Amino acid sequence: MKSVIAVFIFTLILPAIVSAADITIKWDFQSDADGYRVRHSIDNGLTWEGDTDVGNVDNALRVVPDSVLVLIQVGAYNTQGTTWRTDAGVFYNSEWSRPKQPTGTGVQ
């Protein structure tokens, strides 16, 4: 019988230009996992939505709402069950803009 290792790392990647809520979630493969599930919460973990089996991959695309803190959980699963891990949250506001490139900072 296999058991799922509960320690894995995932990151959120925001593209250069983000439509109001497209994020990519990446995590490290676990040798004893048969696949992964991804879900999110917009109420600080009281409820979880969008529980999706993404298969045996190391990333998933998730659409999150604008101007809300979104917690992301990735669950590694096998025949013994699913182990959920909450390691990241994202807050995106569509009115934010990227910082402008600094000027006048060169050495003369």
Walk me through this protein's architecture.
The chain has 108 residues and is mostly beta strands. It has a single domain (10-91), classed as Immunoglobulins (Immunoglobulin-like), CATH 2.60.40.10. Helix content is 0%, strand content 46%. The protein contains no helices and 7 strands. The protein has strands at residues 10-13, 22-27, 35-41, 49-55, 59-63, 69-78, 81-91. The protein has a 4-stranded antiparallel sheet, with no helix packed on it. It has a 3-stranded antiparallel sheet with strand order 1-2-5, with no helix packed on it. A hairpin with a 2-residue loop joins strand 6 (69-78) and strand 7 (81-91). The protein is elongated, with a radius of gyration of 17 Å.
| Helical run tally | 0
Proportion of helical residues: under 10%
Reading off the top of the CATH hierarchy, the class is best stated as Mainly Beta
Overall mean pLDDT: 74
Based on the coordinates given, report the CATH architecture.
Answer: Sandwich
Spatial gap, N to C terminus: 66 Å
Order of the strands making up the biggest sheet: 4-3-6-7
The low-pLDDT segments are: 1-19
Tertiary shape: elongated
Domains (count): 1
Taking the sheet with the most strands, its summary is:
4 strands, antiparallel
Looking at CATH, the homologous superfamily is Immunoglobulins
Structural class: mainly beta
Radius of gyration: 17 Å
CATH topology name, in short, is Immunoglobulin-like
